[in-house]
Write a structure and sequence with these properties.
By secondary structure, the protein is mainly α. It is built from 7 helices and 2 strands, in the order ααββααααα. Residues about 40-70 have low confidence and may be disordered. Keywords: Apoptosis, Cytoplasm, Membrane, Mitochondrion, Mitochondrion outer membrane.
Length: about 180
């Protein structure tokens, strides 16, 4: 799905270029597991793609890199992710540890459905968005907050990266897809 792919690449690149990312190894392993498409310029290599039983590699590869849907311009996504990461660094200090720790506990609770986790993430993001200066677009603030929370949760507990990454991609895709399309 091209849209979720765009959100995945945006979140992945945001996390990759963010300062204070303590889970780079786990982040790069998301590509090897097919959770994130291969992104040019990232630090994941062709030999990390799993071989299928027929001897072919998973995904549509060209020169060792996944070919993204045509509507995903990687360079534009990379530039936008870097700009959002700068904003995220400013927001980072505003997010209280309690909010992050509560979300970590929710993500650790395997009895919560994906829908419940997404709702809890959404509530946390919207609560934090209330404190963001009104001179910033609300959608941009929500996008950055969701991505910063992803980083902070994964920094707190790297083993949650896959679950929080997938949840955030779903949340962004549901709530902000049109905004991202306009941005990219």
């Amino acid at each position: 799905n091209g849209s979720v792919q765009m959100e995945s690449v945006l979140l992945y690149t945001f996390l990759e270029v963010s300062s204070d990312c303590k889970f780079r190894e786990q982040l790069h392993s998301l590509q090897g597991r097919g959770i994130v498409p291969f992104v040019k310029g990232s630090y994941c290599y062709d030999d990390e793609v799993e071989l299928q039983t027929d001897g072919n590699r998973s995904g549509h590869l060209q020169n060792g890199e996944l070919v993204l849907a045509p509507e995903v311009n990687e360079e534009v996504v990379r530039i936008i992710a870097a700009q959002l990461a700068e904003i995220g660094d400013q927001f980072d200090k505003e997010i209280q540890a309690r909010v992050v720790n509560d979300l970590v506990q929710h993500f650790l609770n395997e009895n919560l459905s994906g829908e419940d986790i997404t709702r809890l993430l959404s509530e946390a993001v919207e609560g934090l968005a209330q404190a963001i200066p009104s001179d910033m677009e609300q959608e941009k603030a929500i996008l950055v907050l969701a991505m910063v929370l992803t980083k902070k949760i994964a920094n707190t507990m790297p083993s949650l990266l896959q679950r929080v990454f997938s949840t955030t991609v779903n949340y962004i895709s549901q709530q902000l897809h049109n905004y991202i399309v306009r941005m990219v």
